Amino acid sequence: MINNKHTNTYILGGGYMKNVPDKGAAFYQAIIGNRTTANVLICCFAMSPDKWQEGFETDRDLITMFNGDTTLSFKCADMDSFTDQIDWADIIIFRGGSSQELIARLNNIQDWREHISHKTVVGASAGVYMLSSYYVVTDSMPRLTEGLGLLPIVVAAHYRSTFIHDGDINKSRIFWDEVDELMESQSEGRDIIKLREGEFLLYSE
Fold first, then answer.
1. Signal peptide position in this chain (predicted)?
2. H-state helical runs in 49-168
3. Among candidates 100, 60, 56, which has minimal Cα distance to 76?
4. Residue 70 in domain
5. 101-110 burial by CB neighbour count: b if 16+ within 10 A, else e?
6. Which of 36, 54, 130, 137 is deepest in the core (most CB within 10 A)?
7. Residue 123 belongs to a domain
8. 52-66 vs 25-32: helix crossing angle, rounded to 10
């Protein structure tokens, strides 16, 4: 069990969690752990609202498929009842998408962080970025921008991926080498976390 001051368990994913030989089985099983029952809240705020139901159903089906012996209940997060939904949940999953949209929507929900205690909190891609102190923006030039700082980490998801440069391996290598230097120079004692697509880790402060 991983503990911090809120005794939460954090699972951080690098994005495209099915892009591994086991199709994401280890990740989706780690989310549930050894529970026999679980209430799972899936937050799709990083996506456009018309995609929330689709994102919810995708994660719900994958979690169910890889945890067949567990009794699971699911809810799709909505902004009006988010804090009540957090109180109900054992597990909160922040899906990928736009980190800026996710952060902006969460900033419009009062005191939601105070409700996250004794939970499993999962972030994938944009979800990890939101949890971080700083994260790498994958524009043409790498830079760091602020997350919401729930965890004292500097993070890069989709690490060493070539999609930013349309598969150009040389341009991608140069970009990620610059990311490495940037993260080292600006970490200021925070943990540096680099997650390739499909990778995940458990984090404790």
1. none
2. 52-66, 82-88, 99-107, 126-131
3. 56
4. yes
5. ebbebbeebe
6. 130
7. yes
8. 90
Which DSSP helix (H) or strand (E) runs through 132? none
Q: What percent of the chain has pLDDT over 70?
A: 97
Provide the CB-side half-sphere exposure for 176 (13 A, CA): 20
3-state secondary structure of 82: helix
- Whether residue 1 is contained in a domain is answered as no
State the total domains in the chain: 1
**Token pair listed for 59:** 């994660």
Residue-level pLDDT at 2? 36
pLDDT of residue 55: 98
Whether 94 is in a domain gets the answer yes
Instruction: Output the pTM of the full model.
Output: 0.94
C-alpha 7/C-alpha 116 separation (Å) is 9
Give residue 50's Cα distance to chain centre: 20
- Pull the structure tokens for residue 46: 């990083």
- Distances in Å between the Cα of 169 and the Cα atoms of 79, 143, 156, 163, 166 are 40, 20, 18, 9, 9
Q: So what's the pLDDT on residue 3?
A: 37
Q: What is the mean pLDDT of residues 26-53?
A: 98
* CA dist., res. 58 & res. 172, Å (int): 30
* Per-residue pLDDT band at 205 (split at 50, 70, 90): low
Residue 39: give the domain boundaries. Answer: 9-203
